[in-house]
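Hallway conversation turned thread

IA: we were arguing at lunch whether anyone had actually written out Tigger transposable element-derived protein 2-like end to end. Turns out nobody had. So, for the record, here is the sequence (581 residues) and right after it the structure tokens. Reply here if something looks off.
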Amino acid sequence: MSGPLRKYKEWDEEDMQQALKSIKEERKAIYSVAKEYNLPQSTLDDRYHERHSEKVGRPTKLTPEDEEALVKYSMYMATKGFPLTSGVMKALAKEVDALSSKERNQKPHFGGKMPGKRWLMGFRRRHPEISLRSPDSLDRARAAMSNAKIVGDHFLKVGELLEENNLQNRPHQIYNADETGMALDAKKSRVIVPTASKRAPSIRSGGRDHISVMSCVSAAGGVVPPMIVFNKALPSGKFSDGGPPGALYASSESGYINKELFEQWYFKIFLPHCHKERPILLVLDQHGSHLSLKVLMSAMEEKIVIYGLPPHTSHFTQPLDVTVFSVLKTKWATTLEALQAVDSRFQARKTTFPRIFASVQDQVFNADKIKAGFKKTGIFPFNEDAIDSVWTDMSTSEGPSAQEGSSGESGEQSSAERSNSETCPSCGHAPNPLIGTLVPEHLQDILRPVNSTTAKQTRRRKLSARVMTHEDIVEELRKKEEDERTKKAKAEERKKKAELTRLQKEAKAKQREDKKRKREMENGDEEKEKELGKEEEEKEEEEKEMDAQKEEEKEQSVECQRDGSKRRRVKKRDSCYDYDY
């Protein structure tokens, strides 16, 4: 049986440093200083005579230099939109260990095996500047637009608009409108099931119908009534009862807003409910449905400036997307779960959507949350530095470097970009531009930068942020609509010509068919006449034979009457009868 556990005296590092200072400067005895600061005498003695290591415990598998390189590399990859997973980090650690051990003529500390969970936990504890979290999915189009040049151009235009229209201190005249999709079958939270269960089936809270909501808010915290768009058709019955006050209801084939519905929203919702003071700044994304000539011409007359955000940047430039919609969808899902928990027969339908959405909107669309959205996006109060740097450094279209320029006006490649485009004449590989800033030279083949080669350019023009109510854009839209009308007229003309050609072909085909049928009928009549002639001839011959037979029988009967003999019928082999006198 083991003895009692030894109790160790607890002490603070600050007290230890003060004690060491007293010994060195005041030349006090170790025993008295240990008693004064309540420190273990043996520990103080070891620290004074430097008989210890700075870190307690076993040495790490990787050297501090290698660990620091891994940390910097992981942070670099995260800023470029390619954060490392736990598996990738462990695989890189294995490769780094193998390469570093080979250079030191040592065996790999991991023994050629993959590091485990405990190593990763220790690695994270030693480096609190990195953490493990669920990634936010981001498509490549959004990643390509997440760079300092796009954001800088955006804020330059917003600042000019606010200054030109004197809106720096008028939040009630600044609006943001955006559309978001709502699912009747909301995403489920994690549920409690028996431990032995391998699956957790859950009955849906609603159907698969899609509904979208066009929301609009002001920088002062005001809320404009929404437009609710159903897919296919509007629900039957009094579905709008209990819905958001003043809401407009419509339907489209997809369940999303289109140009015609956007025009309805602008004229029936936005114009009547926006502030009466002018000018008004309306911030939108540049979706095709928002490019309506009718709306833009009306906005210019009404002194409403419509500003289109840079494409694929709404996740960090649009106030509604940044603070409101994420909370809205979470609250929507929890509300459906709560309703289903109260009544297991509950099912969200198109007819009940307005009533449930009104309740959720009242809880989510509050002034503080709306104002926070405008503040985080830097629109109001205007702040060019409001957007998180993670959205300005992500684009992989630029070469990686320790410090990337944000202006992009010089047009010159960065040193990292130039070095990444050149190849080594001896080995044919591009040198690693991260060497010296993020990665040690001996790890250049493992910790590689993000590939800076851009995809093949398409002919489609890439748009930036723009004022959509500008005369040039209106003229462009007018010309576009004229071109569309011309194309439509030409298409109709081609359609008519094709229809006429088709009718002509059908008429010719019918004529050919009629001629063919006529020939067949003529040939058929001749054959019928021939057949009828043959039948008549055969009939005449039969009649002649019958007449001849009758004459013969008549003559025989006359002869029998003359000689008085009797005649009797005799059956022949061919089943006919003859008479024997």
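OS: looked through it. Residues 396-421 have pLDDT under 50 and may be disordered.
IA: good, adding that to the notes. The longest strand covers residues 174-183.
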